[in-house]
Amino acid sequence: MGSVIINNMTKKFGEFTALHDINLEIEEGEFFALLGPSGCGKTTTMRCIAGFENPTSGKIYIGNNEVENIPANKRNCGMVFQSYALFPHMNVFDNVAYSLNIKELNSSNPVKQLAIYARLLNNRLGKHPKAIQEKVMEILKYVELDKHADRLTSELSGGQQQRVALARALVMEPAVLLMDEPLSNLDQKLRHSMRNTIRTIQQDLGITTIFVTHDQEEAMSMADRIAVMDKGHIVQIGTPTDLYSNPSTPFIADFVGTSNILSGTVAGEENGLVIVKGDGFVLRSANKALKDELNVIIRPEHVKVEAVDSIIDDKKTNVIEGTVIMSTYLGSIVRYDVQVGSYQLIVDTTYSSGSNIFEEGRKVKLTVEHERVLLI
Amino acid sequence: MKKLKNSFNGLSVVKILIYAFFGLFMLLPLFSVFLVSFTGQPINILGSLTDPAILSSTIEKFKGASLENYKQVFSNAGYLDGLKNSLLLGFLVTLIVIVICVPMAYGIARTKMPFKKTISALCMVPLIVPTFISAYAFIIMFGRSGWVTEIYNVLGGEGMLLNPYSMAGVVTVQVFFFFPYALWTLVAAFKISDVSLEEASQNLGAKNWFTFIFVTFPLALPGIISSALLIFTVSFSDFGTPIVLAPKELNLLVVEAYREIAGFFNWGGAAILTVVMVIVAAFFFWLQHLFTKGKNYGSVSGKPKQQKLIENKTLTRILSGYSFLVVLVPLFAMLSVALQSVATTWGKDLLPNGYTLDHYKTIFTTSMGNIQNSIMLATGALVLSVIIATFVSYFVVRQNSSKLDFMASIPLVVPGIAFGIALIQTFNTAPLHLTGTAVLLIIAYTIRRLPYMVRSTMGAMRAIKQDIEEAAINLGATPLTAAITIIGPLMLPGIAAGSILVFITVIKEASVSILLAPPEWAPMSLAIFHNILRAEYYSAAAMSIVLIVLVLLLQGAANLLSRKQKL
Ligand SMILES: Nc1ncnc2c1ncn2[C@@H]1O[C@H](COP(=O)(O)OP(=O)(O)O)[C@@H](O)[C@H]1O
Ligand SMILES: [Mg+2]
């Protein structure tokens, strides 16, 4: 097991810079997610750690060892590929046993090596030693695949293949577990249950894990910490709640959860509250303004919708008037699109039977608490 | 290339070995033949590197180097005629093949002609038969006592309808046994040429034949030119037909070169002819490459447009009847060989006088050795080319090694007889005395057939995703171990199909066998060749049939394999 540290890593493909000065410190046993839109450099970062790409500059440390001169096959990073990359000509058992066989191969004399090559080429040409058998069966049992040990991987479902890939990476007891969008090939339902499976296994084994995804919900629900990437840069690193409540840029606010982003200008201060004016709104925020022209971020669930004739104390909370242009039921919540000035704000309200639904075209009052108005 | 530095490992050693193999057994022989074409005397490059005495004599030889041999090409009547005749042969065969194939290809591609499947299947016959056997079959048919000659005489003709021992004979055999090489390219060309233009022409009131000549044909022209160039190269490089049929007074480069080396040990003459052959073949190959670049007639992306097939009864019947005439010639040729192999005697009659299996008995008692030799040599070449082709395609596909790709396609442009001469010349003395050994023979076969093998292993390699290999490395395997345990087994079907092809072509190979095989390693092709030379036609026929059956069986196995792969 070990920590992973990346210092000032840059990666260029010819003229194109895929990674700009990446710095990361991932602690031992941490579940760390790399989150960002497709093409932002997540896979490249992971491939540099695994040794499939060499950084153009910068250093990578795994378990405190600088790894520049360690080839990919000696880095002891277990990798779960996006496509799983299972060996199609081997059954489940042989897939999982592969790394153990290789380990034995590297520490054997030439005669024994031949025997190992033979059983790698065809499992009828030789038996695995007891230690390997037990270890493989143990991990297969752990991922609930012990009954399928003799199956060809092509005969398994997507979720099962995923677990074979995981078992194959885990059996070598890697210093770090690298997973590149491991759930993207699964259907919605399976994806949710695999999230739990992976998280549980990771917690169980306490293995340092780097998890690549473009799905913010996935990252938010699984990771201890998240690095959000954009165009080869790391934009922000933090815990899921950090990122959600204190996004450092509109990009993150938008990427991590749904946000209403309004541009405004600071118009003064009053009772310790910043007054921000924009097209069709005036808002007071309890947060600090670092500049005069800024973005106002409001999460949909932090807005309440009231009838236009209700009486609200606008000293205690922000009140904006708007017009409902659409209302949508999303299970237990109702989502409104409300026109305010030139903006369409998204508002989520919990729906309980008997509560009031505002139809389209109705004028409404929106309220937002001062603390919920983020300024960045 | 930091990566290379990091991965100096077993694989890079393999890469060096493969370069060394190509360098030693392909580039060095070709280069030294090139030198000999100036010095007129054998040059021992390897020896010069290891032995100072040889080096000084080599230097002496270079002092005597001159363009004398090159002048000879244009002054020596034999050489000049050889070049002219070879070019003429290629030209005639190409022209006739195209003329013959255009209607057939049109029929297959664009009409609902009856018996299309049968005709297509019969087009395989010429591809299975080695040319020296086809040439010999023509002797059985058109020779002085051939059955075609007999029919011709009965019908009132004088002498022979066609003297097989003549330019006309060589041309005819090559035409009927090489036409399938052009046919399928032409079919593809007719299939993809833009039908909407033709329809436009017809809408304007043009007649069918007018549309064909002024619209369809020009559209298919690039395909036609490309296949013409291919046929030219094949005909120009063919050794089997001329060696059996060309009479003494008909000089052809391939035969002339063979005689210079096998008859007179005239190194300078053989070398200059070899150089000329390689240059001509390479030039036409390059032309063809130029023509097909960017245009892929065989496999267009996407589905070809739906075309309306012509149903006109008269036209399709004429096309079908005509196509049958063409494909029946090679078929009858093979039936003649089959008939001769079971004949007691077969004189100037339509059919043999009696039937016997004695010739086969003789073959399986006295000539079993040749069959074994063929199988062993072919197996040797197969193993060697599998190993080399697998690694070559690995380096080409995974490491973008275009140099190796180029290297592995050089054998395509070197006629067999030219390559054989280059090898003999280079390895006939110490330090690496290999001429007359099975090793050199196997190496020669391997290099000659490597392009085909590489093509099929490369296809298999491309089908394996890169991340499967990376997964193996990630799990601790070195690149070499990953290649052996993961890539190799996954490529197996592709390798198997390719290696059967290698096996077949090696068994069919004439030029290299005739030139390089020592008596104790004589393969079937050489035995048949000797039998034909000694006019032992019955055993030649029986042996030919054995060879063809062997090829057919293997071809069937290959088809089965590739069908399985597709499923
Ligand atoms: N081998 C390569 N050669 C050139 N460009 C590459 C290569 N690998 C990745 N890239 C480029 O680097 C950028 C980041 O790619 P990647 O790390 O795969 O993104 P992600 O995994 O976040 O979707 C992309 O623009 C991609 O086109
Ligand atoms: Mg990616």
TrEMBL record, chain A:
Entry GO MF terms: ABC-type transporter activity; ATP binding; ATP hydrolysis activity
Question: Which SMART domains is this protein grouped with?
Answer: AAA
Alphabetical list of Pfam families matching this protein: ABC_tran, TOBE_2
One Gene Ontology cellular component: ATP-binding cassette (ABC) transporter complex
Q: Which residues form the ABC transporter domain?
A: 4-256
| InterPro entries for this protein | AAA+_ATPase, ABC_SmlMolc_Importer, ABC_transporter-like_ATP-bd, ABC_transporter-like_CS, Mo/tungstate-bd_C_term_dom, P-loop_NTPase, Transp-assoc_OB_typ2
Report keywords, A-Z.
ATP-binding, Nucleotide-binding, Transport
Record-given protein name = ABC transporter ATP-binding protein
Protein species of origin? Psychrobacillus vulpis
Automatic annotation (TrEMBL), chain B:
The cross-references to SUPFAM superfamilies, in alphabetical order and at most eight, read: MetI-like
Please provide the record's keywords in A-Z order.
Cell inner membrane, Cell membrane, Membrane, Transmembrane, Transmembrane helix, Transport
Q: Name one GO biological process term.
A: transmembrane transport
Location (main, coarse): membrane
- The reply to whether Nucleotide-binding figures as a keyword in the UniProt entry is no
Annotated ranges, domain ABC transmembrane type-1: 83-288, 371-558
Protein's cellular compartments: Cell inner membrane; Cell membrane
Q: How does it sit in the membrane?
A: Multi-pass membrane protein
Regions crossing the membrane: 12-38, 87-109, 121-145, 165-188, 209-232, 264-287, 322-343, 375-397, 404-424, 430-447, 495-517, 537-561
**Gene Ontology terms: cellular component:** plasma membrane
Among Pfam families, the record links this protein to: BPD_transp_1
Q: Which domain of life is it from?
A: Bacteria
Q: Which PANTHER family match?
A: FE(3+)-TRANSPORT SYSTEM PERMEASE PROTEIN FBPB 2, INNER MEMBRANE ABC TRANSPORTER PERMEASE PROTEIN YDCV
Q: Which family does it belong to?
A: Belongs to the binding-protein-dependent transport system permease family.
Q: What is this protein called?
A: Iron ABC transporter permease
Originating organism:
Psychrobacillus vulpis
